[in-house]
Design a protein that fits this description.
The chain has 413 residues and is an alpha/beta fold. It has helices at 9-20, 37-52, 97-112, 139-146, 164-173, 200-204, 242-260, 296-316, 336-348, 363-367, 394-412; strands at residues 56-59, 65-69, 79-84, 121-126, 179-180, 189-195, 208-214, 216-225, 229-230, 265-274, 280-281, 284-293, 320-329, 332-333, 353-358, 373-378. Strand 3 (79-84), helix 3 and strand 4 form a beta-alpha-beta unit.
């Protein structure tokens, strides 16, 4: 490898600006949701850039996009680097796009310096990581790891009413220059660069987060049913008020779950009351709970605690509770040699780093099921993400990309 190899920082930052213009919002963010016209435009733009450099472009039936630079030995499984291009409805310009464009800059830098790697290096932009227009999230990497598209996705509809099958077909058809390949294939390793989506790297002035794994996530759908009645005429002793149950149980859980364990995350993300009249005691309260922890037995334990609390609380006030598990994602632990490769790349780049666990799930979680995966985090201002004000300092983007380059070269050698 040339001793003075470095990425083209101005090119990378220019690409970030160009892609941020695809779906730009008035507040400086991006609305480029999965399988929309804007998502297709981003895929087409990246494909055009790849073809201008002479790279091969592929897509698979799940609309995962691949850009390949050949290595010396075409028969060796490649190294994949990448992330995603879709965004939240009011998303930032860095979530996903930074990782994909840094991966493409790695490919261009290898080409600029005529660096020959033993293995091919491929950039991947996975389909629908965010999961906001079509659920679940990480669709592309999930299908890639499974080697098939789940049958129940065929009936999915978007938040705007569009059919998943139709939007997927239109997205694939919009890129005829990309050769179709099968879903899933052997790979040597996968690296993903991403903004931290938390404040620790910025607060500690550390440019590189070496991700050791991704914590597990479980979603619960909670329903507490009582009896609707007149708000003005029903005395306390006659009330079967599910909102009273929910309020008291949540107060108990908020006071005990997270304060008892720094590794657990407990969040109520949605709540609705039926019938929802201002002058009526509700009949039913629905809510969702997002529960996260690095250890599966801990998630099981907190799950049981939540179920017991709602069951006992509902019975206390003449109500009935029902809890359904609607999502369960086991934690991922990244292989130690990949973690050490990322650490060594940071040292070689002259950058401080720290090991850390990802609180959010990423495409790397699913890829890790079929090949060794690793992640690099870079700081983001105030840890803010999924927000139009999301911001990464230019130097942090460039430094993260340089660490990604060095780690990729090592894995592909």
């Amino acid at each position: 490898m040339p001793s003075q190899v470095s990425i083209n920082g101005s090119r990378l930052l220019g690409r970030l600006d160009a892609f941020a213009a695809i779906g730009a919002t008035e507040k400086g963010g991006v609305n480029r949701q999965a399988l929309t016209l804007l998502d297709r435009q981003a895929r087409q733009t990246l494909t055009q850039l790849a073809m201008q450099r002479g790279f091969k472009v592929f897509q698979d039936p799940a609309a995962n996009l691949f850009i390949r630079r050949e290595g010396r030995k075409a028969d060796l499984p490649p190294v994949l680097v990448g992330s995603h291009l879709d965004s939240q409805p009011s998303g930032g310009r860095f979530d996903g796009a930074l990782g994909t464009l840094c991966a493409f800059e790695v490919l261009e830098t290898l080409e600029d310096h005529a660096i020959k790697t033993e293995r091919a290096v491929e950039v991947v932009a996975f389909m629908n990581e965010e999961g906001c227009r079509f659920a679940p999230g990480c669709m592309g990497s999930m299908a890639f790891a499974a080697g098939e598209i789940p049958a129940d996705w065929a009936s999915l509809t978007a938040t705007d009413g569009a059919a998943f099958q139709e939007e997927l077909h239109a997205t694939l058809a919009s890129l005829p220059e990309a050769e179709m390949r099968s879903l899933g294939f052997p790979m040597h390793a996968y690296l993903e660069l991403h903004i931290e989506q938390g404040p620790s790297l910025e607060k500690e002035n550390i440019p590189i987060g070496v991700v050791t794994g991704i914590q597990g996530t479980r979603w619960l759908d909670v329903s507490v049913k009582g009896q609707t009645a007149h708000a003005g005429t029903t005395a306390l002793e006659y009330r079967r008020d599910p909102m009273r149950v929910v309020a008291q149980i949540l107060a108990e859980l908020y006071g005990t779950v997270m304060p008892s364990d720094p590794s657990v995350r407990f969040t109520v993300g949605r709540m609705s009351l039926v019938p929802g009249a201002i002058n009526a005691i509700p009949e039913t309260v629905h809510l969702t709970i997002d529960l996260r922890h690095p250890a599966r037995d801990a998630i099981d334990r907190y799950d049981a605690t939540i179920r017991d609390a709602f069951s006992q609380g509902a019975a206390r006030y003449g109500c009935i509770s029902e809890i359904k598990q609607i999502f369960d994602m086991p934690a991922a632990n990244f292989r130690s040699d990949i973690v050490k490769t990322v650490e060594a790349a940071a040292i070689k780049a002259g950058l401080a780093s720290k090991r850390m666990l990802s609180g959010a799930f990423h495409d790397a979680l699913f890829v890790n099921r079929i090949a060794p995966a690793g992640m690099i985090f870079v700081p983001c201002r105030d840890g803010l993400s999924h927000n139009e004000a999301e911001h990464v300092e230019p130097k942090d983007s460039v430094q993260g990309c340089y660490a990604l380059l060095l780690a990729t070269i090592e894995l592909a050698s």
